[in-house]
Amino acid sequence: MNEPPKVVNIEYNIRLKQKILVANYRGPPLTQQQKTKILEGIKLELLRLGEQTLVEEVKIKKCVKERDKLNEEYKKLRIQTLELKEKRDKLSLTVKELKQKRNEMQKEASKKIEEIDVLNKKITELEKKKPKRNCTQLETIIESIEWKIQTTSLDVKEERELIDSVRHFETQLNIHRKLRDLKLMRRKLKNKTADLRTGGDTYHLELIKIANTNQETHKKMIKKIEESKEIKNEADRLHQQFLQAKEKVKPTREEIKKLKAQKRKIKQEISQKLLKEKEEREQDLRERIELQTREKLKQGKRVNWEEFQLLSQEEPEEPD
Fold it and tell me: What 3 state SS string does 232-252 have?
């Protein structure tokens, strides 16, 4: 009688990493015992690989969780950065407008100062020509002379002399009047210049205040950008780590997939073998019972209903 084929190392040697799958086996047919032994080896290896994969899966999930958390923080920082940028840009525009208004006022004030300088020169020149008598005195003299011309009988020469006198005093009076008008204009220009300077200073102070706020906003924005870069770099690092871990566990997953397929195949073969053996045993039993039943009938012995049914199933039907 031939001995069943011996299979050397038909199991998973975890220490040496030597794996012999049924699909790769080319020796004599394997017995049920050998297949069961291989199946147990596959189960043990699946258990080991499952534990190994579980450790990597935990690392991957942790890595993904941290990466996603950082990405959410990055998105929030980006929104905050954009909000700060919008605020900064608005403040910059306000600063620009205030500078323009301040410069316009300063320019207008400079023009007024130039006009005042021109007036000062005119006033200085007129001051040199200003008569010793004041306006009231000159007006009184002119009125007196005009009254005399109107009420006194004068010859042509006397009248001409009085008219020349009126003209002379009116010229002096006009100097006073012109000085008065120029000084009034100068006073108005000085008031206007003061108002322009005050307005310019107000704009300037507001400008400085907003510029400082703008500078602080810009610093905050730069800080947010730097934080965003750091978080983005860390998120990218974790993503690369995730990809590496995923790639690392890929062969193990493929191996588990192959092992599960082998496991299903072996279990199916074992089930088919067991089913076949069961059917053979049942067939053998039926044949023995049939033989015994026929012997009973030949000997004229009584058969039971089950034996009769068995013979009826075996006998072919007669044609009509």
Answer: HHHHHHHHHHHHHHHHHHHHH
Q: What is the pTM of this model?
A: 0.50
Q: Using one digit for the tens of pLDDT, what is the confidence trace for 133-179?
A: 888 998 999 999 889 888 888 788 888 988 899 999 899 899 999 99
230: amino acid identity, one letter: E
CB 95 within 8 A of CB 211: yes
* Residue 104 maps to a domain: yes
Chain position carrying tokens 């062969």: 251
15 lies in some domain? no
Give the number of domains in the chain.
1
Q: How far apart are CA 41 and CA 45, in angstroms?
A: 6
18: nearest Cα among 28, 8, 26: 8
| Residue 6 within a domain | no
- CA atoms 231, 232, 233, 239: torsion sign: positive
Give the C-alpha separation, 12 to 262, whole Å.
Answer: 13
pLDDT tens string 174-219: 999 999 999 999 999 999 999 988 888 888 898 899 889 888 988 9
Print the domain residue range for 206: 22-298
Specify if 255 maps to a domain. Answer: yes
Dihedral (C-alpha) 162, 167, 172, 178: value to the nearest 10 degrees?
150
CATH of the domain at 106: 1.10.287
